Amino acid sequence: MSPTVSSPPRTIRIASRKSQLALVQTYWVQEQLQKHFPGRTFEVHTMSTQGDKILDVALAKIGDKGLFTKELEVGMLNNETDFAVHSLKDLPTRLPQGLVLGCVTARENPADALVVHEKHKDKQLDTLPEGAVIGTSSLRRLAQLRHHFPHLAFKDIRGNLNTRLGKLDAGEYDALILAVAGLERLGMSDRIHQVIPSEVSLHAVGQGALGIECRAEDSEIIEILQVIQHQPTAYRCYAERAFLRELEGGCQVPIGVNTHLDGDTLTLTGMVASLDGQRLIKDTITGAASDAEQIGIQLAQRLRQQGAKAILDEIFAQIQR
Ligand SMILES: NCc1[nH]cc(CCC(=O)O)c1CC(=O)O
Most C-beta atoms within 10 A of its C-beta, which of 13, 86, 125, 287? Predict the structure, then answer.
């Protein structure tokens, strides 16, 4: 008799924020993995991040470097959890030493949506009245909409999706700009009044996809995560993230992208805008999907030569004041 000792597979601990959107996303990941690995136990560990706690300061002022991810990262590095589920959009392009982007899931519609107050239900972005107040805390949305619709006014808004919609319905704003993906995941597609076309507003890097972060050394977890990796989305997001990484300097900036994958050909469009919407620099580059990161880096360099650097330097100086 051979004394084979087979220990049961380790329980896998998933880290998540506590917001409703974060939990919907995390439970989806848990369910997919549970289906693929019925013999395993996947448990969810929730925690609050700095971004969930500081609700009274404009995001652009605090800078968004890891605001929604840091506490989850510390937990993984301390071996308290094994991987963290994030909205890829909230995951910084440079990760702490020892952690990697283990997987990117299939993307939902990455576009932004216009959500209006009842009284504007027959309006679109271009027909909202002069001075209509649009709620957004994203400099990217602000700059692009100002560029195309100078008749609109903008006001910062924070809080989770339900809080924001409550403020809209209470009349504090005429309309909001929110990610289509977030509204869809929370079963609130009926609030999408207009999907904003990419000609008007390019979306955020990684928007609509989930990014799963784990320890670089944990090959068992990395292998498990491959069952929910969506390679076309991953190629697109690698290019988008390389573009942002190459351009960014430490805070939230008006940078938008759009990507398209046709067979093995990847097309990346990127833009940088000034906060007043007066200057908007945009270009497109195409290449092999396997060169996704190089495509992102090249586009960033090209935009910088076309004037993006001056715009970004100005913004950093303004925000630090
Ligand atoms: N910064 C908040 C955030 N992070 C991810 C989403 C939406 C879902 C997604 O983009 O995947 C949102 C809300 C929004 O921008 O409206």
Answer: 86
